[in-house]
# Entry
Amino acid sequence: MLDRLKTKGRFAGPIETSAGHWIIDKEWQLKANPEFREAEKKRELLDKKLLEKRRNGRILKNMALEA
# Structure
């Protein structure tokens, strides 16, 4: 942390981190491979559905505990 404080404000642009590189690689992968992009969309929709299902289950559980 102290090393970072010594260099704060001394660089003209942002320093790339591993997360930044991962995001750029992911964007290129999505552009280059349409099949992967479709699979990624399906996976995201499934994740959203599962999260919503869990959320609704917690809401029902809390309603049952209150009653």
Remarks:
- The CA atoms of residues 30 and 38 lie 9 Å apart.
- The chain has a mean pLDDT of 86.
- The longest helix spans residues 34-66.
- The chain has three helices and no strands.
